[in-house]
């Protein structure tokens, strides 16, 4: 472009519009580019790369160590949990045993008490039955007595002479019948 | 050559100056004083190359100075770059290529920071000059070729003889392979330089339209968008340059996939 | 007069050369689109192919950059 004619740089006046194609400038750029690349390469290989790779290696080592430590702690925790569970199971078994024992003892006591109570009840029942039988017999006798007396009285009232023995026999026969 | 008869594009019909000169930003001029630019002259190229070195040193050396087990922000940036390129070299070139990792990292860091620093307004983009990119690409090309011949001897040339193809078409394929091999440095350098130059020229052209008050809001918005795109391009081109270096390096050090 | 004709020819040639960039655009879009459709079919394999994606895009783009370079050469160097 024509504005380049006004450029101060000596090349620009005769050069094309593209400074990229001005080959007179190439040695200049190539020289400084090589200087730059060598500088970057030296900075990287002498300082930056060893530092970064050592940091990365350190971190990798630290992470590996930490993971190993964590694994160990996890194992420890698992062991502790297992011991706790064992203790718990043992305690539970013991408790169950104690409970069973206590239950058996109580059952024994209970059985004994029941047996005693049963026998007492049986004794009382027999006694009561005896008394009931007595009472019943008494009642029967009383009925016979009353019936004899009543029959005697009725016979007497009817004007008959009551023979005590025949009346008794008749009443007895009637009561049985 | 653009002769004197050429009507300047920068002058519109009314003779008013339209300050659109997309190529002006690529001018090389001495930093101190005036005159010829000799090979040893300290120019704006030197300045921006030096700034590139300083930025790389700041991030990779100053940022990692504490060697902390738990990285600070700047240290993790350095470690991220290191890990990224290390993985790339190891994945693409294989285990044998890892010893060339410092060279690849040097190229990547230089191209990345030269591209990104070139996006600073009024800065100078060293990678937009073919002198720079051609040198970089030729270094890779010559390095890979010499390394391949050194490591594999004449076996390196078997890369051009495609043994999986039918015998009849192998000579033709060999010619194509040789041509594509020698086109590598061309495309490798032109891709980087062309992308950088085109992006910066486009930004400059669009920015030039901002002098017209009617369209300037649109122009400012699109400049912002293109600036974002160019940032992406700067990073992607550095990545592409590096990964292509690794791909070429694989031919020299890795197993042949041809 | 001849200079103006030559300049006209240069500009026309440069403009024609930029058509080549359309091819690069088609190529890059093709690669990115196919990558995306492949990645959607098998998302787990996609990250491993990012490098190939970028290499493919770079190769496709390089040819477009060549035509851009031709345009620049016509504009400024011829």
Task: Map the helices and strands.
The complex is a heterotrimer of chains A (177), B (258) and C (78).
Chain A: H1 10-14, H2 26-157, H3 164-176
Chain B: H1 44-62, H2 73-93, H3 101-117, H4 130-152, H5 170-208, H6 216-253
Helix pairs in contact in B: 1-3, 2-3, 2-6, 3-6, 4-5, 4-6, 5-6
Chain C: H1 2-17, H2 20-41, H3 50-77
Helix pairs in contact in C: 1-3, 2-3
What does this protein structure show overall?
Chain A is mostly helical. Chain A has one domain. Chain A has three helices and no strands. Chain C has helices spanning 2-17, 20-41, 50-77. Chain C is rod-shaped, with a radius of gyration of 18 Å. The mean pLDDT of chain C is 87. The interface between A and B is large, with 48 and 62 residues.
Keywords:
heterotrimer; A: 177 residues; disordered N terminus; C: 78 residues; mainly alpha; 3 helices
Which structural class is indicated by helix and strand composition of chain C?
mainly alpha
> pLDDT below 50 for ≥5 consecutive residues: which ranges of chain A?
1-16
Number of strands of chain A: 0
Number of E strands of chain C: 0
Shape of chain C: rod-shaped
Beta-strand residue fraction of chain C: under 5%
Oligomer: heterotrimer
What fraction of the residues of chain A are assigned to beta strands by DSSP?
under 5%
Our count of helices of chain C gives 3
Q: How are helices and strands ordered from N to C of chain A?
A: HHH
Count of DSSP-assigned helices of chain A: 3
What is the arithmetic mean of pLDDT of chain C?
Answer: 87
Q: Order of SSEs of chain C, N→C? A: HHH
């Amino acid at each position: 472009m024509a504005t380049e004619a006004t450029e101060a740089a000596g090349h620009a006046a005769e050069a094309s519009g593209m400074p990229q194609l001005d080959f007179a400038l190439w040695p200049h750029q190539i020289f400084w580019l090589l200087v730059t690349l060598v500088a970057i390469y030296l900075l990287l290989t002498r300082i930056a790369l060893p530092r970064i790779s050592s940091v990365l290696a350190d971190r990798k080592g630290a992470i590996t160590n930490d993971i190993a430590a964590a694994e160990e702690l996890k194992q420890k925790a698992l062991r502790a949990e297992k011991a706790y569970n064992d203790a718990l199971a043992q305690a539970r078994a013991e408790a169950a045993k104690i409970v069973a024992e206590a239950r058996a003892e109580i059952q024994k006591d209970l059985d004994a008490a029941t047996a005693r109570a049963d026998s007492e009840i049986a004794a009382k029942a027999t006694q009561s039955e005896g008394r009931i039988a007595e009472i019943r017999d008494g009642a029967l006798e009383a009925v016979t007595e009353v019936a004899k007396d009543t029959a005697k009285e009725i016979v007497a009232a009817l004007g008959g002479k009551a023979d005590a023995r025949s009346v008794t026999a008749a009443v007895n026969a009637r009561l049985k019948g | 050559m653009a002769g004197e008869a050429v009507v300047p594009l920068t002058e519109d019909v009314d003779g008013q100056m339209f300050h659109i000169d997309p190529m002006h930003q690529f001018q090389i001029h001495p930093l101190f004083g005036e005159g010829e630019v000799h090979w040893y002259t300290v120019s704006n190229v030197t300045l921006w190359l030096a700034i590139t070195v300083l930025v790389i040193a700041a991030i990779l050396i100053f940022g990692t100075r504490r060697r902390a087990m738990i990285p600070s922000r700047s240290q993790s940036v350095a470690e991220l770059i290191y890990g990224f390129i290390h993985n790339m070299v190891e994945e693409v070139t294989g285990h044998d290529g890892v010893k060339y990792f410092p060279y690849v990292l040097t190229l990547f860091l230089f191209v990345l920071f030269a591209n990104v620093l070139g996006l600073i307004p009024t800065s100078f983009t060293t990678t937009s000059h073919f002198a720079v990119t051609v040198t970089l690409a030729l270094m890779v090309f010559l390095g890979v070729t010499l390394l391949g011949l050194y490591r594999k001897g004449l076996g390196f040339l078997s890369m051009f003889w495609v043994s999986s193809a039918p015998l009849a078409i192998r000579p033709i394929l060999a010619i194509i392979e040789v041509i594509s091999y020698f086109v590598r440095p061309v495309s490798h350098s032109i891709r980087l330089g062309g992308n950088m130059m085109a992006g910066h020229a486009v930004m400059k052209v669009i920015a030039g339209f901002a002098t017209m008050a009617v369209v300037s809001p649109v122009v400012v918005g699109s400049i912002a968008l293109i600036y974002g795109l160019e940032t992406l391009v700067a990073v992607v081109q550095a990545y592409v340059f590096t990964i292509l270096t690794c791909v070429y390096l694989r031919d020299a050090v890795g197993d042949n996939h041809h | 007069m001849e200079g103006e004709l030559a300049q006209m020819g240069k500009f026309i040639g440069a403009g024609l050369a930029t058509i080549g960039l359309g091819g690069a655009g088609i190529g890059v879009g093709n690669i990115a689109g196919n990558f995306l459709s492949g990645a959607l079919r098998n998302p787990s394999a996609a990250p491993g192919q990012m490098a190939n994606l970028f290499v493919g895009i770079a190769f496709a783009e390089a040819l477009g950059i060549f035509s851009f370079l031709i345009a620049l050469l016509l504009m400024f160097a011829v």
